[in-house]
Design a protein that fits this description.
- This protein is 6% helix and 42% strand.
- The chain contains one helix and eight strands; from the N terminus they run ββββαββββ.
- It has a five-stranded mixed barrel.
Length: 146
C-alpha cells in the first residue's frame, strides 16, 4: 500500500505548467512540515516535501492556495529515476497528490472586524472598537422592560 497524508504550509506559491500535447495542468510546490519531536534546545526540525498535483486539482492549487497557507495533501509517494548528461544516476522523491484541501482561510484577507492578526500570525478575537474591556455592563433588573 502506498498512501500518504500530509498537513503543512506552502513555502512559496505553486508553479503551474501544462503538459505539451495534452494540455494537462500540473502544479508543483513544497510543503514545510515540522517534525513531532523537540530537540534539547527547544527547536523543531522541519522537513520540506516536494508535491506534484495533476489535473483540475492543479488549477485549484494555482488559483486558491498560496505561500504560507495550511493545506492537507492526500496521495502517494513517487520515486523518479533519471540520468544526468554526465551519466550519473539520480533519484527524486516526491508526493503525487490526488486530493488537496485548504485548511485555513485566505490569510490576511479577513473582513471580520473582530479578528486582528498579531505579529506571530495568531488571530486575536478581541473586539477592535466600541466595547469596554469586559464586553458587558451591569444592568439593574428594573431596567428590563419585561
Amino acid at each position: 500500500m502506498n498512501h500518504v497524508v500530509l498537513i503543512g504550509r506552502l513555502i512559496k506559491d505553486p508553479e503551474l505548467r501544462y503538459i505539451p500535447g495534452t494540455g494537462t495542468p500540473v502544479a508543483t510546490f513544497t510543503l514545510a512540515i515540522d517534525r513531532e519531536y523537540t530537540k534539547k534546545d527547544g527547536t523543531k526540525e522541519t522537513d520540506f516535501i516536494p508535491i506534484e498535483v495533476i489535473g483540475k486539482s492543479a488549477e485549484f492549487c494555482a488559483n486558491y492556495i498560496s505561500k504560507g497557507r495550511l493545506v492537507a495533501i492526500q496521495g502517494n509517494l513517487r520515486v523518479d529515476r533519471y540520468q544526468t548528461q554526465s551519466g550519473e544516476n539520480k533519484t527524486f522523491t516526491k508526493v503525487s497528490a490526488r486530493n488537496v484541501q485548504a485548511l485555513d482561510s485566505n490569510r490576511g484577507k479577513s473582513e471580520n472586524p473582530y479578528v486582528e492578526s498579531h505579529q506571530d500570525g495568531q488571530p486575536s478575537f478581541e473586539p477592535t472598537q466600541g466595547l469596554d474591556p469586559n464586553g458587558f455592563q451591569a444592568i439593574d433588573d428594573e431596567d428590563i422592560p419585561f
